[in-house]
């Protein structure tokens, strides 16, 4: 059995029986327990990853819940001091930046970086000010949304940005 097919069969068994042991998986698939352990250790999350950078308030918790419900891998960080390092470590498919922090400068740095210029950035603002939107786009943001956000609009905007990046 090829590794890809074996991985799919292992995942299928785990989904159907979350408490199944590696030994039981090996027995069911007629492979060694060592091979099952190796394949499980090599599996990784293939969902699109969204990095939320900000102050970690209730709005961010709601953002995380909405996006996780859409099956995105959501990671939050409160540390804007090392934004480039965080993006480098997490390798997100999309960055959501809170404009209450140094988001405009962080966005400029990301877009100027040879390693990160391609990562799309959506800025979030609690202020509904036209100048913040203009400033966001001038700093290189791919999108801008004000809070409180409509969950349907947020999902549509995130989906549109990620679809555009897959092309």
Written overview of the protein:
- It is a single chain.
- With 167 residues, the chain is α/β, with parallel strands linked by helices.
- 52% of the residues lie in helices and 14% in strands.
- A 5-stranded parallel sheet has the order 2-1-3-4-5, with helices on both faces.
- Helix 2 packs across helix 3 (33-42).
List the helices and strands and how they pair.
Layout: H1 3-16, H2 22-29, H3 33-42, E1 49-53, H4 58-69, E2 73-77, H5 83-90, E3 94-98, H6 103-112, E4 121-125, H7 130-138, E5 143-146, H8 151-166
Parallel strand pairs: 1-2, 1-3, 3-4, 4-5
Helix pairs in contact: 2-3
- Strands, total number: 5
Principal-axes geometry comes out as: elongated
| Cα end-to-end separation | 32 Å
Largest sheet: 5 strands, parallel
- Low-pLDDT runs of 5+ residues are none
In which order are the strands of the major sheet placed?
2-1-3-4-5
The H/E string reads HHHEHEHEHEHEH
Give me the number of helical elements: 8
Mean pLDDT: 87
- Structural class by sheet pairing and helices: alpha/beta
Helix percent reads: 40-55%
- The share of residues in extended strands comes to 5-15%
**Computed Rg:** 20 Å
Quaternary state reads: single chain
